[in-house]
Each structure stands twice: as C-alpha cells, then as structure tokens.
Amino acid sequence: MATIDGRPAQYGISLKQLRELMEHRGREGIARISEFGGVQELCKKLYTSPNEGLSGSRTDSEHRRETFGSNTIPPKPPKTFLQLVWEALQDVTLIILEVAALVSLGLSFYQPADEDLPAAIADEEDHHGWIEGLAILISVIVVVLVTAFNDYSKERQFRGLQSRIEGEHKFSVIRGGEVHQISVGDIVVGDICQIKYGDLLPADGVLIQSNDLKVDESSLTGESDHVKKGENYDPMVLSGTHVMEGSGKMLVTAVGVNSQAGIIFTLLGAAVDQQEAEIRKMKKEAKKQRKKKSLTGDDGAAPAGGAITSNSHISSPMPVKEDVEAGGDSTNNHVQTTSPTEGGGGGGGHKKEKSVLQAKLTKLAIQIGYAGSTIAVLTVIILVLQFCINTFVIQEKPWKNTYANNLVKHLIIGVTVLVVAVPEGLPLAVTLSLAYSVKKMMKDNNLVRHLDACETMGNATAICSDKTGTLTTNRMTVVQSYICEKLCKVIPKFNDIPSHVGNMIIQGIAVNSAYTSRLLPPTNPGELATQVGNKTECALLGFVQGLGMKYQTIRDDITEETFTRVYTFNSVRKSMSTVIPRPGGGFRLYTKGASEIVLKKCSFIYGHDGVLEKFTRDMQERLLHQVIEPMACDGLRTISIAYRDFVPGKAAINEVHVDQEPNWEDEENIVNNLTCLCVVGIEDPVRPEVPDAIKKCQKAGITVRMVTGDNINTARSIATKCGILKPTDDFLILEGKEFNRRIRDSNGDVQQHLLDKVWPKLRVLARSSPTDKYTLVKGIIDSKVSENREVVAVTGDGTNDGPALKKADVGFAMGIAGTDVAKEASDIILTDDNFSSIVKAVMWGRNVYDSIAKFLQFQLTVNVVAVIVAFIGACAVQDSPLKAVQMLWVNLIMDTLASLALATELPTPDLLLRKPYGRTKPLISRTMMKNILGQAIYQLTIIFALLFVGDKLLDIESGRGQELGAGPTQHFTVIFNSFVMMTLFNEFNARKIHGQRNVFEGIFTNPIFYVIWIGTTISQVVIIQYGKMAFSTKGLTLEQWLWCLFFGVGTLLWGQLVTTVPTRKLPKLLSWGRGHPEEYTEAINLGEERFDSIDSDKKPRAGQILWIRGLTRLQTQLRVIRAFRSTLEDLEERRSVHSLHSLRSSRSPTGILHQQPTGAHLMVPLSASHRLQSVNGATTPADIIYIDEEPKVPSNNNSRGGFNEDLPKPVTETRI
C-alpha cells in the first residue's frame, strides 16, 4: 500500500463527500458529521490530530493539494498586449485620423489622366504624396503602442500589488504541535486552524472547539444577523465569512474552488460568460426592434430570469464594458447600474462620488473637448470653403479628381487640430502620477488598496485616530500593581504576595487569556520577549513571568478543551471571563477587564496579608481616587483581575452553593459578586516620532482627534504627550456617554445641528464605542459648518471599526494589529501601524494633486497656442503652419512624455506647510491661469511674427501661399522649431505652480524629468535636420537654430515677468474647475452613461453623449481608472466573497443563477467602480441596495446584529 510520510496515501473520506458535508448546516450538519463518526473520527480519516495538527512536511502538503485542491481561486487571465492595443485603437479621434491617412495614401497613388500638370510636377508629387499619409499612420501607431504599453505595465504593477496584498493575509494554524502564521494560500485540507475575533475565514471547516463564537455570514447568505456557532449546535464555518466574536479551533475540510465561496465563484464565472453572450444577443434584438419601430410596450425586454447584468464585475477582474445596462426596464429583472453620482444621496452616499480630483478633471476635459471640436470643425469648414471659392469661383476651374486629395488634406488638418486640442495626456498623467505614488508609498509603509484614496488624502482636513498601536507603540508592559492593599511602582516579588492570592492571580491570568496570546523568547539575548497575540494579555503574561512564574505549565494542565464556558471580550462587555471546573467539584470563574467595569461587579477584595474583606462602596470610591485615577493620569491603562467560585458543598462568604450546573447563559448573574484579586497599570508608551508627526499635521491645517476606548484620564494624558491637546487651546474632551447625551435629541436620535456644536472643538473622545466613532465621522463629513466640506481620514484596527473606516473619505487599517475585517473596509493599510506614515500619505496625496496641476499648466499652454495657430493659419494662409505630422509629434511630447516627466516629481516637505485645498478649490488656480495665458501670449506673438514677417527678418523664402504638394520650406520649419523649443523650455516653468521664482529647484532629484527633456531635444534636432518630407521640415542653418533657441530661452525670462504680476488683482473668473463636486454630477453623468437603456426617454441625449465621449477620450481615463480598480477589486473579491448569491444557488436551464425563494438576496454594489462592500448591518453603512429577484417575497433584512443598534439600516428595496 502506498504511503506518504509514513501514513496511507488513501484518505478515509473523499473530496466529494467533504463537499457534500459542507452543504449542511445546524442539526443536519451535526447528523452528517456523526455519520462519519464525529469530528475526532474525521480528523483520523484525514490523518491529522486535533491538538498536534499536520506534520507540515512538504510531501504531505503537496499530496493534500493534489487530492483536495489548493486554497487559491484562479484569477481571470490578464489582458494580453494585443488586446490592449486593440482597445487603444478604439479611440474615435484616432480612427478618424487613420481613415483620413489611408484615404490620403490611396489618393496619392491614384493618378487620373490630368493634362494640365507638367510632367515634372506630377513626378514630384508622385514621389512625395504618399509620405504624409504614411507618417500620420506611423505616428498613430506610436500613440497606440505607447498607450497600450502604459496600460500593460500598469496592469502588471497592479497584479504585483495584488499578490503582495494577498501575501499579507496570514492565518494561524497548528502544525507539529506549534502555532504557525502561514499564508492563506498554503492552507490545506486537514489543517487545524485557530480562529479568533476579527478573522476573515480562508477556508471551510468544522469546529473542533469553540468559545462564544459568532460569525457574520452575510457575505454568503445576505443574512445580517450574526450566527452563533458551536460544536454542539452548528459546527460548520465557511470561507469568506467574518468572525465577529469569540474564538475556536477548526478542522479545514474544503479549500479554494471546493469551498462554498469557491463554488459560488465558479458558478458566477459561468454565469457571467453566459450573461455576456445574452447581452450581445439582446443588443442585436433591440436594434432589430428599433428598426421596426414597433409600438408595443415591452420590446427589447430581456428574456425572463434575466442575467445579473452589470454586477458582472463581481467575478471578472476586468470590468465588463459599461454599456451592459441594455433594456429590460419593463420587467425589472435587470439590475441597472447607477452611475457613481446618482447613488450619492443615500446614507453612505459620498463614497460613491468620484474623488474630488476626478470630478474636477472630468468637467475640465469635457469643456476642453467642446472647445476643441468646435474649432476643429470651423477650421475644416473655412479651409474647404476657401479652397472651393478660390478654385471654382475665382479661377473658374472645372472639378478634377485630384482635388479630392486637397479636401482630404484639409480634413486631416482639422482632425489634427482636434487631436491637439483634446488633452489625452490627462488620464495618462493622472494614472502615472497615482501609480508612481502608490509604488513609492509602499516604501513609506502605506499599502494603497483604492487608488483614489491616495489623492483624497492630500485634501484631508481631519484625522480621527485610534490611540493604541497608532499613537502608542503597542508594546504593553505592567508597570504598577495594587495587590492586597499594597501599591507597587515596580513588579513585586512573588514571595511578598500571600500565596493563595498569588497563585490565583497567576492562574487567573494564564487561563483567562486567549491561548493564542503568548511570549516568545527573544531571538538575541538582551532583547525583550516577542509578544504574540493580544498585546494587553501579553503584558499580563509578562507580569506573570516578572513574578518568576511560568504561565505555560498552568496552560498545559488546564487545556482549552476543559473550559466550561468562555465569555470573550467585546466592545460591550469590555471584559473577558472563563469558567473552569474546580478540582474538588464545582466551578471557578475568572474575569479580567477595564477596572471601573470589573470593580463595579466585585463584592469582596483581599485586604492586608490576604485577608478577605467586604468591598464596600466607600472602599470602591477610595480605590478609584487613590489608585486607579493616579494610574490613569500617568497614561496607564488599568486592568482588574477577579474571580468567583461555585461549590457543591458548604459555601464560604464569597462563594456560591450550587447543586447542579448553573445557567451559564444568565451572564448578568454569573459574572457578579466577584472577589477582586488585583489591579494592574499597563503602560503603552507614545511612539517617539508621533508628537513631531502631529505637529506637522497641525501645521498642514489638519485637525487630529483621538478616539479611544480607554479611560478619560488615560486618554487625556496620552493626548497631551502626543501634542493633540495644547494647554493654550480651547478644546473638548468627552466620554462616549456625555458625547451621546450632547448630540441626541429627546427621542435618542442623532441631530446634525447638535453634533455641529460639539465636533469643531472636540479633540479626545474617550470610552467610546464603535458606534460613537461612526457617528462622529459621519457627523463631521455631513457637516456644513465650515465653508469647505471636511475630508476625514480614520484609523482603525478592530472588527467594529469597519463602519467608521468605510464611511470615512480615507480609511487606514493597521497592517500588524488590524483584524482582517478592518483591512477589508479600509482604503490604505499602514504596514507599520505608525501614525507618522499617515503624514507621508498626506504628503504624497498633495503631491499627486500638484503633479497633475503642473501637467495641466503645461498642457493647456500648448493646447491654446497650437489650436489658435492652426485655426488662424488656416484662415489667413489657407494652410496650417504646423503640419499634421508635426502636431502629432508635439502632441506626443506634450502629452505622453510631459505627463511622464511632470507626474513623477518627488514630494517636498514644503507641501505640508500649506492648508488643504478642500473640495471646492478650483483645479486651475488664478496663479496657474496667469502663467498659462502669459505664456500663450508670448508664444503666439513669436509664432505670428515669424509667420507674417519671419521670412523677411531671417531672409528666407516665404512658406505662405505655397501650392499643394510643394516641398517643405525653411520658413515653416523655423515656426515649427521655435514652437517646440518654447514648449520645451516652458516645461521648466510648469514645474512650479504656486508662483515660486526658482523653477530649477530640485531638478536633479527627478532623473526622469531631465532624461526625457534631453531625449526630446535630441529627437527634435534629428527631426528638423533629417525629417525632410516625412515631417515636412527642411534643414536649418546654425543662425536659424540660434534664433529658435533664443525664442525658447525667452520663455524662462518671460516666465519671471509673468510671476511678477500680482495674482490677487486678477478676476476670480480666471480660475477653472471650481464649485462643489456635487455640481459636477451632470458633467460626469455625460461621461459615464455612454449608452442609455433602450426605450429610455432620453433618446436625444444618447447621441450627444456619444459625441462628447468620442471627442474627449474620456474612455481612456475611465478605462484606466477602472483597470486599476478592477485589478484591486478582483483581489478583494477573492478575499471576501462579497456580493454573492445565496448559497445553494440552483442553476437555471439557461445557466444563469436563480434565487432560492427564501428571501436571500443578490447584492449588487451600486456602481461598477464602487468597491465591494461587506454586506452586513455591522460593517456597512447604508450604501448598498438589496434587490429582490423574487418580487413576491417581501424582503426583510433589516434585522441588525450586535452593537450596531445606532447604525443606519441597510437600504432595502423590493422591486415589484
């Protein structure tokens, strides 16, 4: 018989049996497990031990992977380079150019019998006519390749980022009797996993042992109540669900595509492919219907059982094209995508708005597109009219076929004007700048999960920070203790404590902490022990070691399996209790927790020499004032340890007599009348770099607030040490209770006007619940008190911080101490849990904004000049001084290369010296507009001077009024060259947007900038001297080159002059892109809708929308941003299987997922770009719509779980 690692190779249970087993719940599940002989027997069949786990050897793991599959869900393959090229070619402007170039090529070879032309000229034209067409084709190909390459490298980068984020997700498993943290992908069937509060389960499993376990299964079932799990009533735990309370151990039974989440993914994948086919079919149908113009009401309705349209991005890393919202309005079995801004009204609305910058850019791009296209059309009309009037009216020549060539040339000039006018470098600049920043931010310990968070952070005006671990080091140590009426400022000796009290303290700490918390001996002698698990518990275990005792020996005697009951720590209890059997019969309960809470439940205390005393109200007050408050004022966190005995025989004064097992569900009475053993003060020192970081934030105009669960005195002490509180300031410090009293009306509802009185001065919120944090964040965001709406960043690490992290404009989760739930809800993960990394994020965010502003300042100058020159040239000289190929070259340097050069500037500390821009600040400030117009005036003056008198000045033949097909002239070459030189030197001016004088400052910190600049200059020399017909240039003499350089350098000197003009005197009208993002919704909708649903009333809009879309190349921008998002979302999907169907989705005959009529809901995020939410009451503010596919089943998922009584209910919408 074949063996693996000394065990049989054949398992006692098959993959199919395990898959079937995991489909059962509750009692059914227990029955199925007992058919296999119980959990212990299952372990034997899988050759694993509940206590020792797997051996962890390579051969064993490999064999398990081969047999039961690996714990990964294969992603969709990334787009190939060719696909991206094809996408880049879809651009309307490029298509027009390609067609025009091909026509021009064709016509150049078409030689009609034309008697008038002398043979020599005809030959000449044959020679060179085709060059221009070819040159345009080549430049189009270059643009396409550059775009595709950018998309390609970006996608590669984000796949890398994605695997990095996935790699960050580790899980505790027991292998060879030791607890190891391993990557989620390495988990195999048969592993024994330790699960605890805040975990996102990576695989399906069966519980072996559990304490007070509650799981949020809404991501799979849509049921927002937390489900109680236990080995005796519901032992099945599923991948993709969140542990909301408690802890336990599970045996892994299914991984990857065989887990419940994986099965749904494979179903969804099939459904999406099916559905895409359906949509295509539907579109064709709809077109036919429209042609028939039939008047019946429900034409074009989707086939019943309609596909889950437009949430198809759930399972595909690449977004399905936005136009999937076709049809089906009459039957409503289609989920319509809401454009990101339409959904913006609801509870968590603002998350769905575009980021501030994106909104401003979209509006700007549309405005420029309108202007550019108008001018382009005018140019073509004027050129054609002039040509026709001149040829046919004045000279009265008959039509010849060769004239078609002239008309095509005019069209090409017009299209080129359009290409130059539309800033297609904009999306590229945004993308590059964001991608570059994200890459660099990883080095600064910021792992960005949602791209726009990076830029939003630059506008942040408020940061609500946790205390523990963010402002403090999260390395906790016990520094004071109060035992038997002795207050010690150092750790006492064990012999000084009465032995019966000492032994109970040691046992109480060892048993009543999670067994996952432990101290590992230091790697190097002389260092501190490594703390693993909950840091507060580690501090207590350290106290046990400091007393010279060993906690592990006690844990070995009393294993977790022997526990009678565990009341795990949560934000409501603020304490943890464990019940263990007593050796002589009966039970003992140990409790530890926040001292003011535990002491309220104590009726006895050990006094001097370990004598038991009644714990009276007076003693409580005295203990509070003399011990606990002084500890708290030193910034210590105080923890009390207490116990209670339940005995079968005669009970002492502090014991309870029991005949049978007490009712453990009655927590109120069980955890009461305790006997206090000791109070300890735990120090968590402030991180040394935090006070400085907070000072920087305050200088940068950002208010830092501390929100903590700690005692108000501890909080005040730490806040003062950090510099959040300054003695001179006017500030508020509130406890959660007082905060709620001030902001709620008589009915207990939160009122915005009451909140507005509190938050501006509030600096510390102590003893706060997660709900308080959420209320505060929401209140600040929704407030209209300050003229600019506040932009709020929040840090969090606990499961219960989820709602606040989601609601915030930017949510920071802790990479080390943070739970999986917090990381899921966040936008940025701080890999070192350090507050000073947030300051770096602010700096990078502001830098992104500035980089894009620099690019705009540069880009718009070129746009204005090129468009005006082409237009006026066309009107005055019947020919654009800048030829199509030349304009494409300018377009390439000013768009693609300049965006690279300007988007990669490094941030400087000066960025932190100005106030945040806020939401309403115009994108192009008056200073920038002054620079743009100033430079444009200079460049236009030079170019028109050269155009009309340049030939006389430089003593060269004029290029004006040349015959079509005549060779290039030096005159027009000088104009082209001067234009490029001025543009190149203006790139230096563009590096500063706040009116600084020294434009060369820090130039050598950015090698990309100077390499590109030098490269462009060299290429320009080559083009001028050797471009000949292809670029319509003629070689220049040295003198002419010096003139061009002189004009170029002039822009730098002129720039200094422009800077001298006082900005304040300029009219406000000169700033562009201002107003609230809300006002941009119209502009954005134009950009987003693309295709209205068939049969909608907005028919005329659709044409107009398409027209704008084609012109502004917004597709690029949206596609780029989406490609980013979707690659990141793809990873999120695989980690949290959210927005999925009810578990036992039956496949309908068409292969589309059908709904169980149990009221389980299909969840669809409101917009394709909207991140996947975890859909349960507890971790989602109301920004998800549940849509019932079974209209007859009224949806009832307002049931809310646990602590979130004050959270908004999820919006439910039953469409009937």
UniProtKB/TrEMBL annotation:
<keyword id="KW-0067">ATP-binding</keyword>
<dbReference type="Pfam" id="PF13246">
    <property type="entry name" value="Cation_ATPase"/>
</dbReference>
<keyword id="KW-0472">Membrane</keyword>
<dbReference type="InterPro" id="IPR006068">
    <property type="entry name" value="ATPase_P-typ_cation-transptr_C"/>
</dbReference>
<keyword id="KW-0479">Metal-binding</keyword>
<dbReference type="GO" id="GO:0005524">
    <property type="term" value="F:ATP binding"/>
</dbReference>
<feature type="region of interest" description="Disordered">
    <location>
        <begin position="50"/>
        <end position="74"/>
    </location>
</feature>
<keyword id="KW-1003">Cell membrane</keyword>
<dbReference type="InterPro" id="IPR044492">
    <property type="entry name" value="P_typ_ATPase_HD_dom"/>
</dbReference>
<keyword id="KW-0547">Nucleotide-binding</keyword>
<dbReference type="Pfam" id="PF00689">
    <property type="entry name" value="Cation_ATPase_C"/>
</dbReference>
<dbReference type="InterPro" id="IPR023299">
    <property type="entry name" value="ATPase_P-typ_cyto_dom_N"/>
</dbReference>
<feature type="compositionally biased region" description="Basic residues">
    <location>
        <begin position="282"/>
        <end position="294"/>
    </location>
</feature>
<keyword id="KW-0812">Transmembrane</keyword>
<dbReference type="Pfam" id="PF00122">
    <property type="entry name" value="E1-E2_ATPase"/>
</dbReference>
<keyword id="KW-0106">Calcium</keyword>
<dbReference type="InterPro" id="IPR018303">
    <property type="entry name" value="ATPase_P-typ_P_site"/>
</dbReference>
<keyword id="KW-0406">Ion transport</keyword>
<protein>
    <recommendedName>
        <fullName>Calcium-transporting ATPase</fullName>
        <ecNumber>7.2.2.10</ecNumber>
    </recommendedName>
</protein>
<dbReference type="InterPro" id="IPR008250">
    <property type="entry name" value="ATPase_P-typ_transduc_dom_A_sf"/>
</dbReference>
<keyword id="KW-1278">Translocase</keyword>
<dbReference type="InterPro" id="IPR022141">
    <property type="entry name" value="ATP_Ca_trans_C"/>
</dbReference>
<dbReference type="GO" id="GO:0016887">
    <property type="term" value="F:ATP hydrolysis activity"/>
</dbReference>
<dbReference type="InterPro" id="IPR006408">
    <property type="entry name" value="P-type_ATPase_IIB"/>
</dbReference>
<feature type="compositionally biased region" description="Polar residues">
    <location>
        <begin position="329"/>
        <end position="341"/>
    </location>
</feature>
<dbReference type="InterPro" id="IPR059000">
    <property type="entry name" value="ATPase_P-type_domA"/>
</dbReference>
<dbReference type="Pfam" id="PF08282">
    <property type="entry name" value="Hydrolase_3"/>
</dbReference>
<dbReference type="InterPro" id="IPR004014">
    <property type="entry name" value="ATPase_P-typ_cation-transptr_N"/>
</dbReference>
<dbReference type="GO" id="GO:0046872">
    <property type="term" value="F:metal ion binding"/>
</dbReference>
<dbReference type="GO" id="GO:0005886">
    <property type="term" value="C:plasma membrane"/>
</dbReference>
<dbReference type="InterPro" id="IPR023298">
    <property type="entry name" value="ATPase_P-typ_TM_dom_sf"/>
</dbReference>
<keyword id="KW-0112">Calmodulin-binding</keyword>
<feature type="region of interest" description="Disordered">
    <location>
        <begin position="282"/>
        <end position="352"/>
    </location>
</feature>
<feature type="transmembrane region" description="Helical">
    <location>
        <begin position="928"/>
        <end position="949"/>
    </location>
</feature>
<keyword id="KW-0460">Magnesium</keyword>
<dbReference type="GO" id="GO:0051480">
    <property type="term" value="P:regulation of cytosolic calcium ion concentration"/>
</dbReference>
<feature type="transmembrane region" description="Helical">
    <location>
        <begin position="412"/>
        <end position="436"/>
    </location>
</feature>
<dbReference type="GO" id="GO:0005516">
    <property type="term" value="F:calmodulin binding"/>
</dbReference>
<feature type="region of interest" description="Disordered">
    <location>
        <begin position="1191"/>
        <end position="1216"/>
    </location>
</feature>
<dbReference type="InterPro" id="IPR023214">
    <property type="entry name" value="HAD_sf"/>
</dbReference>
<dbReference type="Pfam" id="PF00690">
    <property type="entry name" value="Cation_ATPase_N"/>
</dbReference>
<feature type="transmembrane region" description="Helical">
    <location>
        <begin position="855"/>
        <end position="874"/>
    </location>
</feature>
